[in-house]
Every structure is written in C-alpha cells, then in structure tokens.
Predict the 3D structure of the following.
Amino acid sequence: MAIGVKVMKRPAKDVSYVRATLKGMAITFKKMFEPKVTMQYPEEKSAPESERGAWSISPRWRGTHRMLTDEQGRSKCVACGLCPQICPANCIKLVPGEDEEGHRYPLIYEIDEFRCVFCGYCQEVCPEEAIHVGVHYENAEYSRDRFVYDLERLSSQTHPVSTLWDPTDPKGE
Amino acid sequence: MTPELKGLLLVSIIKLLVVFTVTMIGVALLTLMERKVSAWMQYRLGPNRVGFGGLLQPAADGIKNIIKEETFPGMANRVLFMLAPALAFIPALTLGSVIHWAAPLPVNFDFTLPLLGRFVHTGLMPMAVADLPVGILFVLAISSMGVYGIALAGWSSNSKYALLGGLRATAQMISYEVAMGLAVVPVLLLTGNVAFGEIIRAQQVGGFGWFILPLFLAFHNFLVAGFAETNRLPFDMPEAESELIAGYHTEYSAMKFSMFFIAEYTNMVTVSAMVTTLFLGGWDIPFTHWDETPGVLQTIATGGMMFLKVFFWLFFFMWIRWTLPRFRYDQLMALGWKVLMPIGLAYVMLIATAIYLIENVAGISSGLVKMLVLTGINVALGYIVFMVLDRGLLIGGSRERGAASGGLGRRAA
C-alpha cells in the first residue's frame, strides 16, 4: 500500500498503547457501577412535557390524529374540506353532509395512518381547530385495516394534542 | 476387565458427565454474563425480563435457536457446511477434559454390582477427566484443530464474507499458535514437565510461587495470544461485524450458529483455565500449604479457588472486549509475527540463560530465591517492553509505513 500516512510526533504518554489500554479498562470498570440510563419501557413511559418526568416527549410531537368534540360530544368538524385538500399524502377521506338546520358535518371522515406523513398540515389548516395531531406514540395493532381511523375512533382518543410550531413564537413561549 | 479398570472407568464417566454438564451450563450463563457486563459498561441494564434478573435468558435463546429454521445457502457445499460447526464444537469441548479443576480427591471404594461385577478405586483421583501426561501439548494440538471448523465454515458457505472470515481465522490462529507455544516454553523450563498436575505443583513453592510474576512477559504474551486464538475482541478479525457481516458464520442459522457460539465461549473457558493453570497456580490457594494435603474439604475449597480465578479471566475477556476497538488486520499480523514472536523467542533464551546461571553458576537451589530473581528480571524486561518499545512496535504498521512513504504522502497532501 502506497498510502502516505502522516505520523505526528506525540509525547510517549499519549501514544503508549499499553497505558491507553489500562486507562480504558479503568474507565469501563468504573462505568459498570454508575447509574444506568435504561428506560424500562412498558413500566416507564415517555410523558408529554407538561407532566415532565425523567423521560419526556416534546409538546410539538406529531403523532396519530385526534378529532376534538364540542360540549354535546359532536365533532367540531364542519366538513370544509381544507384538510383533505392540503394533505400531501392524500390520506384523509372526507364526505360532507348537511343537517336540516344547514350545519355541515362529516358523513365519513377517515384517516389512513399508514399513508399519513405526520406533517401536521391538517391541524394547521383547520379553521375550527377540530382535527389535531396527537402527542402519542403507542399505535400497535393486530391487523392493517385497524390503521384506518374513522370519525368515531378519532373523536374518542383522549391523548394530548400537539402544539404546533409557531413561526412567530419559535420557542413556544 | 479388572475391577480396578472398571473403577477407573466409572469415576472417569462421572467426571466426564460433570465436566460436560457444567461446561454447557456455564457457557450458556457466560452468554448472559457477556451481555450483562457489556450492558453495565455502557450504562445499560442488559437482559432482565426472562426469569429473575434475566437468568433464564440463555434458556430462551437456546429454545429459540433449536426451533429456528435451518437455512442453507444455495450453492453451499452441504456436507462441509454441516460438518463445520461440529468441527469447531468438538475440539472446544475436548479441551475441558484435561484441565485440573481442583486438588486431587482421595477416592476409595470397593463394591460389587449385579451383572457389572466388582468396582475398585483406591488412592488419589485427579480432578480432571483425563490426567494426561502430555498435558499442555495436548491442549496446543487440539486447540489448533478448531481452526478447521472455522476455515471449512468459511469455505463451504460459498459466500465472500464467510470465505474472507475463514481465511482470516486460519491465518490468525496459525500465527498466534506460534506466539502461544513460545509463551508456554518458559513455564516448561521452570517446571521441567508438561503435565498440568506437575505445573500446578511447581507453583506451590513457598506459598506463593505463581509464575505470573517470575514469568510476567510470557504470561502477557500468552494472554494476548489467547485472545487471538479464541477470536475475541480486539482480535475478532474472523467475525468483524463492521467489515464481514459476521465472518465465517454469516450463512449459519439456528443451532448450527449456536454451536459456533458455544465453541467460542468454551474456548474462552479453556484459555482462562490455561492461563490460571500455567501462571496463576491452577487450583492453588496462595499463602497456605493446607490445600496440598488431599481431602474432601481441600478439593471443594480449591475447586472454589479455581472457579474464582477462571471467572476473573472470563470477566477479563469481556472487560477487554468492551474496552478496546478491533485491530486492523495488518496490525494483528504484525503484532503476532513482528512483536510477540521475537519477544517470545528472546524471552525463552533469556529465561533459559537466567535459570542456568541461577542454578549452576550462582548455585541457588531455593525455589523462592529463584522466583524472586526471575521476578526482578521481569520487572526490568517489562519496563523495557511496555515503556520503551510500546506503541511503535506493539501496534506496528502506521509508523513504519509513515516513515517509508512519508515523503510521498506529504507531497500528495
């Protein structure tokens, strides 16, 4: 091999292999008795920052969606169609309906969480503050079709919702 | 068959079963210990879900490995592919049979069984399955058999990574055999015998006659060569995850992979026991002569002592593994041939001369004085090797190459 390796002239104590080894061994031995950082996952969990413990997830976390409801328990959604319009992954299916008083409401509102890219645009664009991305990460299911969340499922979620990044208040104060 | 022969067979079979069982269970627990130690050194907890504190993890792993699918690479040489794990596994387990695990136990019995006849055993029973008079030579011979398993695994897999791993393993193990053999020679010079029983007896002089101090450099070389022989980090070239996926066992799955794994850990136990026997007095309890008179209590106590020493070296293996990064392949070879072998050779000459001078010229026959003088020599030699030669030679390569092509490199830069 004709690769020129530039060898620096260093003091012996810095290049000594045996001494470096012993030093390394002393360090690893000491580390054995220091507190561990492992999170015992199913018992300990990351909590949203509001209930900050040893482990926290950011309030800006964008997880699976949640539909907020009004006092009567109906979803706040007015089926304006902005969220399926803006959705870059095209994962929101919305069929609007209208009741006798002329209020629009979603007949079908489904989000395919597999297609979703969790950009949070739906929450950002929503004029009624109805659809939100949630601060939530435990989404395991036994079958794939369980990942298409319908309106009922979206409304019954209780996890906290994301406070999206606000360009006018970048630090979230 | 004479009753004496039958008695010998009986105790041998019992010892065989005990050693085999303890080795297999011990190896299983060692895999857990490895994971635990690595975890603790990295601020983690390690496996702690299966059983109390993860104690049943090896059992879970074992069950998983047995029920897993066995895969065969498309163009693999099936016969050799099946044979290789066995070839790695058998020599590894064979070696456990010659190690003396405790002080000899006086066993006297004389009984008659229906059909089988009379069994007689009198006198001391060495606590090794086979107390071979060739001892260390047997270990050197059989341990080099293990390389066939690895080389064949690499060859038969018909995979580039496996082949490279197998080639590296072959070169590495053969190279370090030399260093290992040369590191053993000073021990033989001092004891004048290759049987493990005699080597241990020679280290009981004056309470503390362990060879680790009078033969420190040989001990060091043996340890380094031992790491290379077992393919453990920092010399795990044959596996080298980052370069060769998993080296020679890339294509292996399920129990066949597990057998390589067991072989590696069994080899670790063997090397630990060898270091203990050759340089740490085997089962000898230091600063006392109580353990040298045979008895049941002594056997148990010395067995415990042996366990502690071997355990320490096993921990040491793991400690090193999770401290040092892997050597470059050329550094590994340079260390073996350009450092360990010359040092080993010179050391054999020096020790032989020193022993001759002490015994024949100075006329000292006291074992303790001899040990002290040799210790003095080793302190001086150790200083030279570890403080003066150190880096430039110990991990050679970059400096020599830098000197050879330094001008070129600088011009290119």
In short: The first strand of chain B starts at residue 105 and ends at 106. The mean pLDDT of chain B is 82. Strands of chain B lie at 105-106, 109-113, 117-121, 124-125.
